[in-house]
């Protein structure tokens, strides 16, 4: 399917690896020029070179922590009013509800709620002036059903979801859509580090921890960054202009809910 976005410009945050890279790759395949961001320059340059050579698109890189004000300013200066924005950053650490104090919550809110809000606020006016824009926020299945050990994620991402629910309806008249993609377990470095956490906590091997988590997913496997990216690219396509303010779960059926 032609997504109809060849020649558009996208800012994809936290995209040298994992789900962010999956989104960047699928957009590049659709002919979109990219500004890619990640903290570490080496992996970022390798990812950008890979996409340039495979898809022939223009890719600019910004090595910066997007959750800091300075990092965001650098990324936004390079992207200069993109047509497409994909927000993403690392998730908060796991723990127990009794572990976290105010500073932990402030860090999680900064990274997973206030950073995407600041990026949207910066990019929306130009998208609305042009009468076209697409924003996809990478959130988590924890928005639909809380994950016990990820209380910081449950809290921060639900705040972002409320903001998007209200804002997406206000910008839709200008041809701009905002939607959230909610990953369940996907095979990325993040999933591997959570497997290692389960392995340590239960004194089992990492392989057994993975098998145990796969067994909780009706699809009986982890998702891939490529299939996640393909869904993101569709949401950014010309065909998705009527999808507004939605929370789309990509979890292999893991969240047991009727709707
Ligand atoms: P990951 O840890 O594998 O992603 C790594 C990428 O994010 C790298 O490119 C890294 O440089 C970049 N990054 C991380 N923090 C950054 C920052 N502050 N500034 C700039 N770049 C940054 O993560 P992932 O598995 O791809 O997950 C992406 C998001 O989705 C995370 O917020 C994660 O919590 C969430 N999520 C992931 C899963 C999963 O199973 N993978 C499930 C639910 C939610």
Automatic annotation (TrEMBL):
Tell me which species this is from.
Jannaschia pohangensis
- Source domain of life is Bacteria
Similarity comment: family membership: Belongs to the short-chain dehydrogenases/reductases (SDR) family.
Record-linked Pfam families:
adh_short_C2
User: Known InterPro entries for this protein?
Assistant: NAD(P)-bd_dom_sf, SDR, SDR_fam
> Which lineage ranks, top first, belong to the organism behind this chain?
Bacteria, Pseudomonadati, Pseudomonadota, Alphaproteobacteria, Rhodobacterales
Q: What is this protein called?
A: 3-oxoacyl-[acyl-carrier protein] reductase
